[in-house]
């Protein structure tokens, strides 16, 4: 994972939108909605937002369960796919790398990376 995040040519821009999740599953959904609205998912620039997850939602199973079963996300047409960084394209990897470095987030603190329908990213850390 770490090897795939470093050494990429710098392109694209990064939006440093941060949201802290509180209030369990409902708080996670609200944070995802807030971040997805803050980054423009309808353009060709990869932007990255951050959702700080609390201890109860700091694993992939919990994140997927909440995000895949949320009527709020479905009703707002917000599609978030939790994925492995190996399937990201070069522009997404560059944006993610720049965001993590610029935010002083170490890769071991990242629980998951979510890809929005427009290609923008949400980091769950």
How much helix is in the residues? 25-40%
Instruction: Give the H and E element order.
Output: HEHEHHEHEE
Strand order of the largest sheet: 1-2-5-4-3
Would you tell me the structural class of the helices and strands? alpha/beta
Number of helices: 5
Largest sheet: 5 strands, mixed
Structure, briefly:
The protein is α/β, with parallel strands linked by helices and 125 residues long. It contains 5 helices and 5 strands; from the N terminus they run αβαβααβαββ. The chain has helices at residues 2-5, 24-38, 60-68, 71-75, 90-102, and strands at 17-20, 48-52, 80-83, 112-116, 121-124.
What does the model show?
There is one protein chain. With 125 residues, this protein is α/β, with parallel strands linked by helices. Helix content is 37%, strand content 18%. It contains five helices and five strands; from the N terminus they run H-E-H-E-H-H-E-H-E-E. It has a five-stranded mixed beta sheet with strand order 1-2-5-4-3. Strand 4 and strand 5 form a beta hairpin.
Salient structural properties:
125 residues; 37% helix; alpha/beta; single chain; five-stranded mixed beta sheet; 5 helices
Question: Topology of this protein?
Answer:
Blueprint: H1 2-5, E1 17-20, H2 24-38, E2 48-52, H3 60-68, H4 71-75, E3 80-83, H5 90-102, E4 112-116, E5 121-124
Parallel strand pairs: 1-2, 2-5
Antiparallel strand pairs: 3-4, 4-5
